[in-house]
């Protein structure tokens, strides 16, 4: 092996095809023309490298002694162990940066890591370009309507028949706190179940009595009060399970309730949903986790960054639009359900088509000069993009 090749190879491994390329850090990218928009299985950011295939490239071996190497700026194939002058042109040698310090560790479960020596990279004629956001000549714009986040919704229903004897929350819009009293209910069945529990002598019967009370909707805080008082409560209290606002109230003091009746609904507005209508032809560019920029005409100057939480599986036959759901943070409560919003969806990151490697039905690429192979999910392609 010649001197230059000896310095280019630091660890002997089986020969492989080196495809200098890039992985991208943005999720669900698209491919466009002379560029590919791709998504990767890994969140490492990198630089796109375009180069012809170089057969016989070897993975680099770690230096045994860590000695500094020197090279000629004009003749990078010349490598020396000490400072001096180039025997070809007489220029002073410069330190050779091998990049060993940030070489990724290789484990038994990780992908094989390759390193290409700088002099080999230079002789390859490698060109570099950065991965960048590309709109493929179009922007997916739409509008949406703010709705309640159904995951932050609590329905309070009755599991027994009885009468509301005390009502602490009296109107829609009242704020409630977790653990706060909502109302008290007199129900003969609850009184009987409490008596059965308090009169039971064995631990097994008491356990059954507690389970029966829980099955009837009695909360732990009310059960604790009954235990402390050691007598049945005629009016059983019911408490809020979470912070929120009363969104629906169907009872008043003295109301007779039936089993299964919806008594109240508590809604937390700490986050809201934005339901966006997207034309059928644009749905292919949007998937779960696609990022979007949201602005509200009712809140000038407020711009929110969000991502797609769910793409509904159906299309409206009349309007030919699909629905997309975004989750919007709303800690200050200023974004109100029913509000209108303008939405701009972002497309993925683009890389050169020549930066991808095809292996059967899958595609992959390499991150700069030192990397393990990364898998790609390819989207659309466009030949008119210029880098």
Strand content: 35-45%
Secondary structure category: mainly beta
Low-confidence stretches: 1-64, 101-111, 383-387
Distance between the termini: 39 Å
**Radius of gyration from CA coordinates:** 33 Å
Count of individual domains: 3
- Number of continuous helical runs: 5
Physical arrangement of strands within the biggest beta sheet: 11-20-23-22-21-24
Quick one: how many beta strands? 29
Domain CusB-like beta-barrel: 271-345
Domain CusB-like barrel-sandwich hybrid: 156-267
Family: Belongs to the membrane fusion protein (MFP) (TC 8.A.1) family.
Domain Heavy metal binding: 69-95
Question: What's the quick description here?
Answer:
One of its GO terms (molecular function) is transition metal ion binding. The chain contains five helices and 29 strands. It is mainly beta and 387 residues long.
Could you characterize what this model shows?
This is Multidrug efflux pump subunit AcrA (Membrane-fusion protein). One of its GO terms (molecular function) is transition metal ion binding. One of its GO terms (biological process) is copper ion export. This protein is mainly beta and 387 residues long. The protein has 3 domains: 133 residues, no CATH class; 86 residues, Efflux pump adaptor protein, beta barrel domain (Elongation Factor Tu (Ef-tu), domain 3); 114 residues, OB fold (Dihydrolipoamide Acetyltransferase, E2P), CATH 2.40.50. It contains 5 helices and 29 strands. It has a 6-stranded antiparallel beta barrel with strand order 11-20-23-22-21-24. Strand 22 and strand 23 form a beta hairpin. The longest helix has 13 residues. The N terminus and C terminus are likely disordered.
